[in-house]
Amino acid sequence: MRLLPHPATEDIELTEVLRALSDPVRLEIVVRLALSGVMNCGEAGDDLGVHKSTASHHYRTLREAGVVITKQEGRLKFMSLRRDDLESRFPGLLDSVLSAAGIPSTALGPGADVPAPR
């Protein structure tokens, strides 16, 4: 597995995280990750209602902002929330965003920072 480039925890900037979360499609990706824990990027794009290239742009924006971490295994890419990293940098931010999106904390999936293939 190969880890795609992403900012170190201490380099995650609030403005970049908020910018990444401001788009409805990217917010939907974050909600889905919060519920499932890990997503296969190829399969997830089919359900978002956007072209594959647009979905890739959204995944990259979330990764470069430090919201998600992406690992590649062969041709497959797996993405998960950087829940622990975001919580250490901006306590309560992710929970507040998910709560505002209508996701109860009891519905949240596993918060692993490093995705495993499914």
From TrEMBL:
A GO term for molecular function: DNA-binding transcription factor activity
Key word Transcription present: yes
All residue ranges annotated as the HTH arsR-type domain in the record: 6-101
CDD domains: HTH_ARSR
Ranges that cross the membrane: none
The organism's place on the tree of life at top rank: Bacteria
UniProt-listed SUPFAM superfamilies: Winged helix' DNA-binding domain
Key word Nucleus present: no
InterPro entries per UniProt: ArsR-like_HTH, HTH_ArsR_DNA-bd_dom, HTH_MetalResp_TranReg, WH-like_DNA-bd_sf, WH_DNA-bd_sf
Keywords, alphabetical: DNA-binding, Transcription, Transcription regulation
Pfam families found in the cross-reference section: HTH_20
PANTHER family: TRANSCRIPTIONAL REGULATOR, ARSR FAMILY, TRANSCRIPTIONAL REGULATORY PROTEIN
Protein name according to UniProt: DNA-binding transcriptional ArsR family regulator
